[in-house]
Amino acid sequence: MIAFIFTVICALASAQPQHRTAPTFEINLDKPPEQRFSVIFDPAAGFNETVWEFYNMYFANNERLKEALYHLVATRGEEVPEMQGEIRGLAMGSKLPLPFVQGIQMLYELQTVMVPIVNVSRLPKRLVSTLNYTFERETAPPEWAALSQIPWRGPGCTGIIATNTLDGTVSHARNLDFMPHRIMSRLVYTGIFTRNGTELYRSQMVAGYVQAITGMRRGPNGFGLERNTRYTDHPGGFEQALSNLKAGRLLNGWQLRQTLEACATYECALDRLSTVPYASTEYTILSGVRKGAILSRSPDYVAYKQTLGIPADTQPASYIIMTNFDFFYHDIREWFDPTGGEMFRPRRLVAQGLLNATLASGRALTPKVLFDVINAEGVLAGGNDSEGGGDGTIFQALINVELDLWNVSIPVLKHRRRDDARAAS
Ligand SMILES: *[C@@H]1O[C@H](CO)[C@@H](O)[C@H](O)[C@H]1NC(C)=O
Ligand SMILES: *[C@@H]1O[C@H](CO)[C@@H](O)[C@H](O)[C@H]1NC(C)=O
Ligand SMILES: *[C@@H]1O[C@H](CO)[C@@H](O)[C@H](O)[C@H]1NC(C)=O
Ligand SMILES: *[C@@H]1O[C@H](CO)[C@@H](O)[C@H](O)[C@H]1NC(C)=O
Ligand SMILES: *[C@@H]1O[C@H](CO)[C@@H](O)[C@H](O)[C@H]1NC(C)=O
Ligand SMILES: *[C@@H]1O[C@H](CO)[C@@H](O)[C@H](O)[C@H]1NC(C)=O
Ligand SMILES: *[C@@H]1O[C@H](CO)[C@@H](O)[C@H](O)[C@H]1NC(C)=O
Q: What residue stretch is flagged as signal peptide (predicted)?
């Protein structure tokens, strides 16, 4: 009964969701890698139980998936010693199988195998022929076919970098969307990575995953960093990623962490992330003091670059935006992504409509405006869980390097409210 009343009250609340905070942990880089992440086993955070829940629900009873993932891990071999040490520490602490903990480090790369949500067999034949490369999942080598059963998937994520004409500063807003939302939203935290007692960089983290997801290097010419899933842009793209993974290429997120560690400036980060090899396609979204860029990364090169201040591809000079599709190449898959609430209403276009309207009315793209845009209906993912898919925004960030702003929170989604109320009653 209490749960019912709670749900009704929340349904009547304003369109913008409430937000809760995520825990913050210091990850001390002076400690041996095996010990750095022991802080996240704090019972109050409940991460250990949640990761076990994830494992039991999706892996423990799926021998084919486990076998394929462990086979990939074995083929790949150990990660670089520092990363492997961190993985070992997490496996020892949680008592989860080591190849499982190592396997989920490929979270982003393996996602590119997924056909983004659309069940192409439901679409008209005429469209299917233009969706050509989304069939890759079917054509993946049989040995690896079970990898398409990985339980996490996007597409998710929205990133906006914009200039506020009131003070000239640049803000960066992001939604991190993931499914299964119910589990993923309970695993997020902020890691403050320290060396010699002071912060070197910070990152939004998912417990059990040691790589950076949204990061910030504070300082007079520092940078904010976001990654979004990018699907392959040509037939054979996933096999290329798979062969990079098998060959042991550094994972994308490790390259990001290394960049946060090695680079104190925006230029250093931009240069590095434009050139280092990635294991798979991905968007790299970088903001700095009065500057910003979005790199559409292929494993070996930058396929496309958007630069704040240079109007192009239906974006004015004052902002750049990215969700999960090469819209500048008219990637048709964007239209079939229902995560904003429905198909044929891409999150990017909803966000651009709001940004454009703000500009048209003579108002500036302030941090507050950006925060409202990423929380708007149609941009925030997962307001609608009626199909039980459980995709949703699990973490948000609002970064302004010049103002030293790092504002992270978790939106309390509608279907979560019901769960939360149930848990509380
Ligand atoms: C995590 O959970 C597992 C399974 O319940 C348990 O064996 C292990 O000791 C737990 N780890 C910590 C640090 O509490
Ligand atoms: C896709 O749709 C077809 C036809 O409606 C159905 O038979 C098939 O089971 C669906 N596949 C998935 C993975 O949902
Ligand atoms: C469709 O796939 C074929 C064979 O893989 C390829 O040659 C062709 O370029 C693809 N077309 C598009 C539009 O991607
Ligand atoms: C570490 O901090 C101490 C005290 O603040 C300082 O004296 C020392 O130079 C620092 N070492 C490094 C390597 O930065
Ligand atoms: C937003 O404005 C740009 C021009 O500044 C335009 O090219 C684009 O089509 C607009 N998009 C939407 C969704 O309004
Ligand atoms: C939620 O999803 C269902 C099924 O896809 C759809 O019928 C319904 O209109 C959606 N509701 C909203 C508010 O988007
Ligand atoms: C920072 O996030 C909170 C949600 O936790 C939000 O209420 C607040 O308005 C945000 N700050 C700014 C400057 O937008």
A: 1-15
Q: Is residue 264 domain-resident?
A: yes
Q: What is the pLDDT of residues 164-212, one digit of tens each?
A: 999 999 999 999 988 788 888 899 999 999 999 999 999 999 999 999 9
- Identify whether 247 is part of a domain: yes
Cβ 94 under 6 angstroms from ligand 1: yes
Q: Quote the ligand 4 centre to 196 CA distance (angstroms).
A: 6
What amino acid occupies position 171? Answer: S
Q: Give the closest residue (by CA) to ligand 1 atom 11.
A: 94
Q: How many domains does the chain have?
A: 1
Q: How far apart are the first and last CA of the chain?
A: 9
Tell me the residue type at 375: N
- The verdict on residue 272 lying in a domain is yes
Which range of residues forms the domain containing residue 236? 2-14+154-424
Query: Which amino acid does the sequence have at 124?
Result: P
Which domain CATH number covers 363?
Answer: 3.60.60.10
Which ligand ends up closest to the CA of 117?
2
Q: Tell whether ligand 6 has an atom less than 6 A from the beta carbon of residue 342.
A: yes
Which residue's CA lies nearest to atom 9 of ligand 7? 368
Does residue 212 fall inside a structural domain? yes
* 389-409 pLDDT, tens digit each: 467 889 999 999 999 999 999
Give the pair of three-digit tokens for residue 269: 């980060």
Give the residue, out of 95, 96, 100, 101, with the most ligand 1 atoms within 8 A of its beta carbon, to mutate for a pocket test.
Answer: 95
State the Cα–Cα distance between residues 50 and 59, nearest whole angstrom: 13
DSSP 229: E
